[in-house]
Structure formats: C-alpha cells, structure tokens
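Practice record 12: protein with glutathione.
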Amino acid sequence: MIDLYYWPTPNGHKITIALEEMGLDYTIKPVNIGKGDQFDPAFLAFSPNNRMPAIIDHDTGGAPQTVFESGAILLYLAEKTGQLMPASGPGRVAVFEWLMWQMGGLGPMLGQAHHFNFYAPEKIDYAMDRYSKESNRLYGVMDRRLAKTKWLAGDDYSIADIAAFPWTRTYERQGVDINDYPHVAEWRKTMISRPAVERGMKVGTELREDLSKLDPDEFKKLFGVKD
Ligand SMILES: N[C@@H](CCC(=O)N[C@@H](CS)C(=O)NCC(=O)O)C(=O)O
C-alpha cells in the first residue's frame, strides 16, 4: 500500500493519475494546504519543501520508502512498476526530457500565470503579461512537439504526459486560448478520454475549496506572505 499525501491540485493530480494508470493500491492522506498542514513537522520530516505531493511506499519488501517532489514520485513509480516509461533507449531519454521540461518550465510558469492573473490581491500588469506570455510560449513548444508525435515523449503514452496534463486544465486562467494550440487541444481530449485520467482527476474533489475564497490568514499561510 502507498500512502499519498495529497490535495486536489495539478501536482497532486499527476500522482493520482499515475497510480490509477498503474493499478497500484493507495490511501489518500489529505494535506490541506489552505490550513497549513504542509508545515506539520511530521510531514516535513519526509517532505522538507513543505509542498505536497509526497508518498510513503510500504510495499518495498523492506523499510518504507518516502519520496517527495512530483517528478521524483513519477519516476519512482515508473521504475517500480516498469510502466509508462521505456526501460532503455531514446524513448526513455525523451521521457526524462519532457518530464524535466514540465517540472522546470511548464508547471512553475503556468503556476505563476495562474497566481498573478487570478489569486493576486493586486493586479500587476507587468507580472500578468510576463507569465501569460511565457505560458503561451510553453503551449507553443508543446503544440509543435505534438504536431510531430502522438505523445510528449514520442510514440508511447508516458509519465511525461501525466505530468503535463493537469496543468493544462485551467488554461483560461493562464491567459491562454486553447484554440491557438490545436495539437494540445487534441491531446487534451485524448487524455480526458482515458478512464484512469478521469478517475485520477476526481480523487479528492470533495476536499477542494475555491482557493480564491481563502480567509486572509489562510492566504498568507499558502502563499508565504509575511506580515
Ligand atoms: N515542485 C513541487 C511543487 C509542489 C507544489 O507546489 N505543491 C503545492 C500545491 S500544487 C503546495 O503544496 N503548496 C503548498 C504551499 O505553497 O505552501 C512538486 O512538483 O512536487
């Protein structure tokens, strides 16, 4: 059994989708990031970046294995199961490339666009413009890639697709018109039609609160605002 420390956000959804695709048993351990659960010392002991997701894998045949960072968790699960990442060769390297592209670029930049366009208490034109432009640049990179290959890492569906997909759910809030990226739009439809993706995206929806309705203390906790 795997314990998944989770809240229903894009980084959390990567892991629920992967676990559903791989058919692994897991238990959700909610980390309410609006209430500050990510700062609980017991959580920080194995997830020192005070962010979810993180996992504890009890099915190792030995001591439980903890993993934090969604990209590391996806790689760990792919290695553990031998699924959703080729075992060797150029296809495996392509998964590394597109997974790192998501972790270092797509996720952080779309996250900033979402923040400045939607959550920020004051509207800062420079920031909204900068991150919306960068989001559009990244959708363009993805669109050109998906014009050439069915999946991000090539011919095969992989953890790279799973990492990128949840971040494209709220494209409007990122300042993106999906019609400008027809190959991404088509890929999103294919992703949505996968039953495991549908199940993964639904996990914990009952936990979700509209983060824009956080009270001021919760907002400070989540976004690290200092008094
Ligand atoms: N690089 C990390 C980022 C994780 C992350 O940003 N998680 C957010 C929710 S999507 C979080 O836990 N936020 C809590 C906070 O900001 O204090 C990963 O991919 O796992």
